[in-house]
């Protein structure tokens, strides 16, 4: 009897997880069709079950005022809740919010902190933005070698902007040794990326 109960528990848990994730996916589909009211409802239902992607989506919808009355405060509340649970997309979103000053004062230190947490989890856009911060010295001491390293991480994952920066850095010897062969390699990768995006 115990193995059967264990099986039912696993099956129930799997179905719940699939239902949560399908609500989030449904919400994304509704956003694409610009049916923001229904998208928000799907995201809220999924967020209420603990779906961190959905929590982040609800927060972004509040900040943007899509399908709901615009509220930076509620948006930040949702995104913060997901970010504090180590969700890389939410951490990236908070980093961007503090970097740009969306609903909060610009705070490069907080931006750097959240982007670092997200980048350490491999979140591509966070890696690129962290590289920009190291390159510019916003929120962190300027460090062109670290900027190069983060650009390279993102470039290897096909981030076009990072590929462009890596090609330039090799060409000019910024943050790394000058290497025209490697620069040309990245210029070739850029063309492949552009063709893949068409």
Q: What are the main properties of this structure?
A:
198 residues; mainly alpha; Serine Threonine Protein Phosphatase 5, Tetratricopeptide repeat; 2 domains; 10 helices; 0% strand; disordered N terminus
Oligomer: single chain
Globally, the shape reads globular
Percent helix range: over 70%
What separation lies between the terminal Cα atoms? 56 Å
Overall CATH class of the largest domain: Mainly Alpha
Radius of gyration: 20 Å
Give an account of the 3D structure:
The protein is built from ten helices and no strands. The chain has 198 residues and is mainly α. The chain is globular, with a radius of gyration of 20 Å. The termini are far apart.
Furnish the topology, listing elements before pairings:
Layout lengths: L1 H31 L3 H13 L3 H13 L7 H12 L4 H13 L7 H13 L3 H13 L7 H13 L3 H13 L7 H17 L2
What's the gist of this structure?
With 198 residues, this protein is mainly α. The protein has ten helices and no strands.
């Amino acid at each position: 009897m115990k193995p059967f109960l264990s099986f039912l528990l696993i099956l129930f848990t799997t179905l719940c997880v699939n239902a949560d994730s399908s609500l989030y996916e449904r919400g994304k589909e509704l956003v694409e069709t610009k049916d923001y009211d229904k998208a928000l409802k799907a995201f809220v239902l999924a967020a209420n079950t603990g779906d961190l992607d959905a929590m982040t989506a609800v927060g972004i919808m509040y900040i943007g005022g899509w399908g709901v009355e615009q509220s930076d405060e509620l948006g930040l509340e949702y995104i913060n809740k997901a970010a504090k649970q180590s969700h890389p997309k939410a951490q990236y979103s908070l980093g961007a919010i503090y970097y740009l000053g969306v609903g909060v004062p610009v705070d490069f230190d907080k931006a750097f902190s959240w982007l670092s947490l997200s980048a350490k989890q491999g979140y591509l856009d966070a890696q690129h933005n962290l590289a920009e911060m190291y390159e510019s010295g916003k929120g962190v001491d300027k460090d062109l070698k670290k900027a190069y390293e983060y650009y390279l991480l993102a470039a290897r994952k096909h981030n076009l902007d990072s590929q462009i920066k890596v090609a330039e850095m090799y060409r000019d010897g910024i943050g790394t040794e000058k290497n025209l062969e490697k620069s040309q390699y990245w210029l070739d990768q850029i063309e492949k990326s552009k063709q893949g995006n068409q």
